[in-house]
Amino acid sequence: MKTIRTPAFSLRISERALLVSTAIAALTVAAAVATMVSGDFPLTVGEVLATFLGQGDGYAEFVIFTLRLPRLLTGLLVGAALALSGAILQSLSRNPLASPDIIGFTQGAATGAIAVIVLVQGSMAETALGATVAGLLTSAAVYLLAFKQGVQGFRLVLIGIGVSAMMLAVNSYLLTRATLESALAAQTWLVGGLNNRGWDQAQVVAVVLAVLLPCALILGRRLALLEMGDSAATGLGVNAERTRLALLAVSVGLAAVATAAAGPITFVALAAPQLARRLTAASGPGLTASALMGGLLLVISDLVVQRLFPTTPLPVGIATGAIGGLYLVWLLAHEWRKGSTT
Predict the structure, then answer these.
(1) Local confidence band at 63 (pLDDT 50, 70, 90 cut-offs)
(2) Is position 3 within any domain?
(3) Where are the transmembrane segments (predicted)?
C-alpha cells in the first residue's frame, strides 16, 4: 500500500489494485479496438485512427461514428454504472448477493418501461423516463420497508427479493394485457441489449456517471468504514444512517439510468464487483476496479454476441445472463461451503 501526501490531501493506493485496474483498462481498450475493426464492414486500425483524427473517408466515418462507437460507449458506460451500483450495494449490505437486479431495483425499472410500452405505446425516450421513475420509486419503497431503526443489509436484501418478485408478477400481468406488437416490444426490452442504442443513450449515461461517480468515490472511505459495522463507523465519526442513505441514492441512480438506457441487463452488477474484489484482494469496496470490470464485461459480451451471431444479433442480456447464471451457481455453492465449515 503506497500513500501519496500533498498539502491539500492524502491518498492511499494499493499497488495490486492499481496493477489489476490497469490490466482491466488495457483489456477494455483491446476489446474496443476489436469492436471497431471487425464485423460486416471491416476496417483496419490505421483507418480507425485516421477517422478519429478527422482524416477518414465518409464510409469509415459512418461505420465508426454512427454504427459502432455509440454502441460501444453505451455498453462501456452502462456496464460501469451497473457494476458501481452493485459494488455499493454489496458493500453496504455486506452480502455478495446484493445487486440491483437481485433485490428489486431493476425489476421496478422494468415495470415502468413495460407500462409505458404497453399502456401508452411510448417512444424509446418515454420508455427510458418511465424506467427511471419506476426504478427510483421501487428503491424508495424497498428502503422504507427495510427501515427499522436504520437499514440493515440482510433485511434490505430479503425485502428487495420480495419486492422483486412482486414487480415480476406485475410485469407478467402487463404483458398478458398487451397487444402482440406491444408484448414483443416489451419482451425485447426486458432481455436487455445494445441493439439500436446510439449517442442519446451514451450521453445520458455519461452525464449521470460524471455526476455520481465522483460522489461514490468521495463516499468510498465512509463506505469502507461502514463495512466494519455501524458501531465502529459511528465511533470513527461517520453518521451511519445518513451515509447509507446517500450511498443508496447514488447506487439507485446509477442502476436506474443504466437500465433506462439498455434495459435490465442481468448479472453485471452482481458479478463485476466480486470479480474485481477477488482480483485486487481488496479489503474495501474497490469502486474503481469494479466500474472498470463492469465496462469490460459488457463490452466483451456485446462483441461476442455481435460476431458470433452476425445475421441475427442477439441482445447482450442473453450473454450476460448465461455467464452470470453460471457465476451465481458457483457463488452460492462457494458461500454454502464456507458456511458449512464455520
Answers:
(1) very high
(2) no
(3) 72-90, 102-122, 128-147, 154-174, 204-224, 245-272, 284-305, 312-333
Q: Is residue 339 part of a domain?
A: no
Whether 49 is covered by a domain: the verdict is yes
User: Tell me, what amino acid is at 293?
Assistant: M
Cell of residue 275, nine digits: 470479480
Element (H, E) at 4: strand 2-5
Structural domain count of the chain: 1
* Phi (first) and psi of residue 151, to 5 degrees: -115, 120
> pLDDT tens across 227-237, in order?
777 778 788 77
Q: What is the model's pTM?
A: 0.87
Contact between 119 and 127 under an 8 Å Cβ cutoff? The reply is no
DSSP 298-331: HHHHHHHHHHHSSSSPPPHHHHHHHHHHHHHHHH
Cβ 75 vs Cβ 294: under 8 Å: no
User: How far is Cα 84 from Cα 216, in angstroms, rounded to an integer?
Assistant: 8
CATH of the domain at 63: 1.10.3470.10
pLDDT per residue over 250-276, tens digit each? Answer: 988 888 888 888 888 888 888 899 889
230's grid cell: 455501524
pLDDT of the residue at 8: 61
